[in-house]
Write a structure and sequence with these properties.
Layout lengths: L2 E2 L6 H10 L4 E6 L10 E2 L5 H5 L3 E6 L9 E5 L1 E5 L5 E3 L4 E5 L4 E5 L7 E2 L1 H4 L7 E6 L4 E7 L4 H5 L13 E3 L8 H14 L3 E2 L1 E3 L5 E3 L5 H9 L16 E6 L12 E4 L7 H5 L1 H8 L1 E2 L7 E5 L14 E5 L1 E2 L4 E2 L5 E5 L5 E6 H11 L2 E10 L5 E4 L2 E6 L3 H9 L3 E3 L2 E5 L7 E3 L4 E3 L10 E6 L4
Length: 448
């Protein structure tokens, strides 16, 4: 029989034990009576919780009797922490996403754990607090305290901040500067450097010269100490870093399009037949006359036929008027005139790809020059966006603000030695970026 989890009673002990468990961020939620193991724990009427809590493997669970109960489920690696610092796996924990409300809940958190806070989470008692620590390896280290616990009173000093949903942050170190302030200080110092040589960090963190034309992002990341890794997580202190070319560094959100993300299709002809057959079927001969080469490119916007490929972008199962996903098995679809689904990006995979990486993002303008060598300069006027969700993303697609702009090519296409380059990218103009976030602020770093 599972034991009752022992309670931590001091804030300094909580910080110490959480840090020892590998935690780099601590948040808490004051529980309502309905927040219990029977009714699940309510984490908000939007997707803010998905921007804070790590999860994986989103799956669709379709109700046979009530479409309002259709939901996404995700796996969560949750461990209960006792006052001695021991950890106890709760293997059945999952996040439940109800997209038609929308609503996020935590479920299964008591089942299978060797020690667990049943006294508090099987009850409806007032004053309970759920504390969650997040680790870099995507674990959640959890603890619950009751109303009479002295730690409860100590938590009163921390207040809910706009954009954090129902979660309140506890700094791991008292008086630690917030990540927003640290980010702005770093970007201000970078802007003050003026022109810098184009570089890219290698896997060991060493800066090496980079001569390709797409070095603006790599150079900015290098100055922030960010090693390119391809992981689906923010770049710097929980912020996704996005540089964009701009003709006016002192004016906000100017310039050409920037790439938001580059997910490969997860369904359709592309997935079932492979990228090479896809481009042979839906691509076209190289327009510059390069022999035996097929391309698949061009801007694909919502419900507009792309002239080169003949395909149209659709949002299957998404209601753009209400902003709700109505078919959990739907997705962004490239469809031909005869109804063939050439490529699909299922919502269940886009939720994780978009929400985890773009919860908070910084947009930094840049200029480039090739002489005396490839160099970049970054602006003082930056944009900070917070609290995005898959709904924001899909509504921007429906408004034709986000569009699919691939760069896929197949060389030696008619031979057995064909070579493919794949790049599926969703892009947006800088002026439309604020629509992706509930909170967006333009900041002049000279005034910070």
């Amino acid at each position: 029989m599972a034991e009752e989890l022992s309670e931590i009673t001091r804030l300094d002990a909580l910080r110490s034990l959480m840090a020892r468990a590998g935690v780099t961020r601590i948040v808490f939620k004051r529980l309502a009576p309905n927040d219990n193991s029977k009714n699940q724990i309510y984490l908000g009427g939007d997707y803010t919780a998905l921007q804070i809590l790590p999860y994986s493997d989103v799956t669709a669970d379709i109700s046979r009797t009530d479409s309002k109960r259709d939901r996404f489920k995700t796996k969560v690696k949750l461990q209960w922490l006792n006052k001695e610092g021991a950890l106890f796996e709760a293997p059945a924990t999952q996040l439940i996403l109800y997209p038609k409300y929308p609503e996020v809940r935590l479920s299964g958190f008591l089942k299978g754990a060797g020690q667990r806070p049943s006294q508090h989470l099987a009850s409806r008692n007032e004053g309970r607090v759920l504390i969650l620590g997040i680790t870099p390896d995507d674990r959640i280290v959890a603890h619950v305290i009751g109303a009479e616990n002295p730690l409860n009173k100590q938590l009163d000093q921390y207040k809910l901040q706009e954009g954090h949903g129902l979660f309140v942050d506890i700094p791991l170190v008292e008086h630690l500067q917030d990540t927003r302030g640290q980010l702005l200080d770093a970007l201000k110092e970078i802007a003050q450097r003026g022109w810098v040589n184009s570089v890219k960090l290698d896997k060991t963190g060493n800066a090496i010269p980079y001569r390709a034309l797409n070095g603006g992002g790599y150079t900015l990341e290098a100055m922030l100490g960010v090693v390119p890794n391809g992981k689906n997580e923010p770049d710097y202190l929980g912020w996704e870093i996005k540089q964009h070319k701009s003709p006016a560094l002192e004016e906000p959100l100017k310039g050409g399009a920037l790439t938001l993300m580059t997910p490969e299709p997860t369904g359709g002809y592309y997935r079932t037949n492979g990228a090479k057959d896809f481009i042979r079927t839906f691509g076209y001969p190289d327009k510059k006359g390069r022999p035996d080469r097929l391309n698949f490119g061009g801007v694909h916007r919502y419900e507009q036929t792309q002239t080169s490929t003949g395909l149209m972008l659709h949002l299957d199962g998404f209601n753009a008027d209400t902003g709700k996903i109505e078919d959990l098995n739907g997705g962004i679809v490239l469809r031909s005139a005869d109804g063939t689904k050439a490529a699909i990006w299922y919502y269940k995979t886009l939720i994780e790809q978009w929400t985890r990486k773009h919860a908070k993002a910084a947009y930094i303008p840049s200029l480039s020059r090739k002489e005396p060598q490839m160099q970049y300069r970054y602006g003082h006027v930056v944009g900070l966006g917070e609290k995005s969700s898959i709904t924001h993303f899909l509504q921007a697609v429906a408004a034709t603000e986000i569009y699919y702009d691939p760069g896929i090519k197949l060389e030696h296409a008619s031979t057995d030695h064909s070579k493919i380059k794949k790049r599926s990218q969703f892009r947006i103009k800088p002026k439309d970026i604020p629509t992706l976030y509930e909170l967006f602020e333009v900041i002049n770093l000279r005034e910070t």
